[in-house]
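User: I'll paste a sequence; please echo it back and then give the predicted structure.

Assistant: Echoing your sequence first, then the prediction.
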Amino acid sequence: MCGITAVFHLHGGPVDESVLAQMTDSIRHRGPDDAGLWRDGPVGLGHRRLSIIDLSPAGHQPMSNADGSLWIVFNGEVYNFQEVRPVLERDGYRFRSRTDTEVILHAYDRWGPACLERFNGMFAFAIWDARRRELFIARDRFGVKPLYYWFDGRRFCLASEIKALLNYPGVPRRPDRSIAYDYLALGLMDHRDDTFFEDIRRVPAATWMRVSESGITTERYFRPGSAPRRRVEDEREVIEEFRRLFADAVRLRLISDVRVGTNLSGGLDSSCVACMVVENLSRAPDAGGGLPHITFSACFDDPAVDERPYIDLVARDRPLERKYTFPKDADLLEQMHAHMLVQDQPVMSAAMLAKGQVMKLAREHGIKVVLEGQGADEYLAGYTEAAAPAIADQVLAARWLDAARQFRAYRRLQGIRPLRAAREVARHLMPPEAASWLRNGSVHRMPWVAEDLVPAAPNPPRRFADGALDNWCLEGLGDHFLPFYLRSDDHNAMAYSVEGRQPFLDYRLVEFVLSLPNEFRIRRGMSKWILREAMRGLVPEEICRSPGKRAFPTSEAQWLAGSQRTAIESLFSSRAFASRGFFNSSGARDTLARFCDGAGYLRTAVWRLANYELWLQCFRM
């Protein structure tokens, strides 16, 4: 896990080493263990190393092949590198290190872009191919590792974080108005390849890119959900196959030359990870160095959001060493300011601040690697709203009785009123354009958004699959939920030089689940059905059967309406806020007042308004 930078002057001109060093040093937190720069005329590569695999100097980057025709900077982990390496050795490749970095380098030399299909991991890397005079760039299947770029037609800059790009002369600091609208009005972020900064873009997940004198070419090498549908004859066999794949995903992510921990929220997903870690370590006790597995959790004095009772259930009768942090609301706006400097963009909720405190806690206890439960909700339909498209699929298939049963169970388990539940189902029965129109039409009832910010026409909806639930899951994986959570978690972890690993995003597991009938994701109103069945006997029953979703909750609403109200009122009343051109300042103040008077549904609007203004201040725009 590291930080990488690259500069390529497409039409000549040497790369300034001092600029490359400044870019690379700005992300030192991503790799405090080692640093390296390499230049060759119009191209330069920079690297900050967090040593996880092969801690020796042999892992230094930028790294080259034997004849110096290929140079790589790499961020992430290829978990199955020990399986790919023998194949390359049989083809005559010789290795000077035990790193996965060198495996990537030789694999690219042997198979070109097709090497990506052989990797199971999270990665973002750039390879300078001197023979072709081009920069080859790639990102993992789900975009776990971030990668951003700026290109003006002559100069190309690449980095793990936007802050590094802002250190290159000529890169503008201007807010992107289209993204501002999506965030302030619709609550969307990380849903497109554009960023909050105008002209700075992200390399798409599951994509490779070539940069040469002729410009940029891109190609997508993986699309989730492309595996054919399975015919299920024996449910128990399917459940056992899921458990085997999940166990192996955890096993691979325990491979490390440093001690590994787990972030434990008390919810289903992180509990499954922690319990499976213990099971893996019981089979290979040497893998844990003889120490109890260590977990990190955010806890609160408010019993309504405190998760220690669930964490204690997981730890019962297991060799787990529990560590807690207690996020507070003191100086919340200052915390938000500092967090934006970490994230390079506004923060979606106070839960992100809590996750940052958990990563800090891990580092304070000397842990460089933590496993997390991220990713399961998106393809296992773990969010409350996933039941609506599942019911819509049953309606479209004329399975009226099944739809009625699912609808009743959905309402009962989630406590949703009939009219609201029916509205949600109906939305998934509409053509995508109509559903998009309804969503964007609600903006006219959002008085905090400046009228000039509203676009003449909303972005057209994307369709990922024919089935409503499949489309919902793939949208969550690619556009809606997952990109935001992965980017936020990565920046939170790397701010404290910690590597986060996500067993649920092993592509074999994702593809397996998406190939199954809907009933393996949602059944009788219960989400993540196959996960719950597969974990029976391993995860405490109270957690396995709980219908609610829990993941690092906070007392955000109480903070905003209580201790932080005065500070936010001052923010919304400031001259700078009124002159931005993004906000309706009187509408913003009215929204805050209505929220504090009990309109709880306006909480997210208040948070976004405050965050966006603070972000503009942070980056002096």
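The mean pLDDT is 90. The first helix runs from residue 17 to 25.
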